Amino acid sequence: MSSAGVDPAGLRELAEQVARAGGDLIRAGLAEDPDAREVSGTKSSSTDIVTAMDQAVERLLRERLAEARPADGLLGEEAGYSPGESGLTWVLDPIDGTVNYRYGIDAYAVSVAVVEGDPTVDGAWQPVAACVHNPATGETWTAGRGLGAQLQPGDGSAPRELKLGPPPELGQALVATGFGYAATRRAGQARVLTGVLPQVRDIRRIGSASLDLCGVATGTVDAYYERGVNVWDIAAAVLVLTEAGGALAGLRGAPAGGAMVVGAASPLLEGLCDVLGQLDADSDPT
Ligand code: LIP
């Protein structure tokens, strides 16, 4: 499908409906049993957990999208990739920030994006519409290609358009980051952190890439970087940030992706990329 046949407004509405339905399921589960955060398994390491709720939410997202858009592809953190015929693929993280959900920390999100291109290849996909919904706070970010980015606060107050102003210089920047689940990678990320920390205002480790990037779009942090995130962690929030006037990059001219994601407004983006490049932040310890 060409961009000409795509309806960002209608797709944005569907993304929000589906993400909110996932949030409703999470809230209903916690209302029945506030301790309903049981871990159902682990993935890449003993700390990379998946909960029964992750799996239940992704099933719901897939059911709703298959019913509404049967020709589209689906790519989710828990159930993998099912290519479609339409040229569009829905990229799903049922709970981004699973560890926060498990521990009752209100920083996790249902992330729903629809993209053109191949979401399995860094730099080969472009988001068309997106929703990032925090079920704990009610905060809901939406974006559509060319339609801007919006934040609906969780307290019912009026939604607002997100527009980034000029960013601070690097030394005044509040920078969010995250860490992987493998000990070797975490050791490398700790080394990079000791190089970044003296050069910025401060660091925040929130625990959800989608909320980190939405935080840049909202202005609650000035920049975000992380090595090792997956497309489902960021696909929706990437559109929120770019539609709010921000930008994303990898290092040394590479596209944002698994090696490194950096998100900020220019020229802070370029300055942080330079520091991370000097620290070889897109590689692991040998
Ligand atoms: C999380 C990311 C976060 C990262 C965590 C984890 P998950 O995704 O959103 O940025 O630092 O280690 O990968 O696993 O909760 O979907």
From TrEMBL:
Q: Name one GO molecular function term.
A: inositol monophosphate 1-phosphatase activity
Q: Which InterPro entries match?
A: IMPase, Inositol_monoP_metal-BS, Inositol_monophosphatase-like, Inositol_monophosphatase_CS
Q: Name one GO biological process term.
A: signal transduction
Cofactor entry: Mg(2+)
Regions annotated as coiled coil:
none
Which EC numbers characterise this protein's activity in its record?
3.1.3.25
Q: Which residues bind Mg(2+) 2?
A: D93
Please verify whether the record's keywords include Signal: no
Reaction it catalyzes: a myo-inositol phosphate + H2O = myo-inositol + phosphate
The record, for Pfam families, names: Inositol_P
Alphabetically list the UniProt keywords. Hydrolase, Magnesium, Metal-binding
**Which residues does Mg(2+) 1 bind?**
E77, I95, D96, D233
PROSITE patterns per record? IMP_1, IMP_2
- The lineage's top-level taxon is Bacteria
Family in the record: Belongs to the inositol monophosphatase superfamily.
Under which name does UniProt file this protein? Inositol-1-monophosphatase
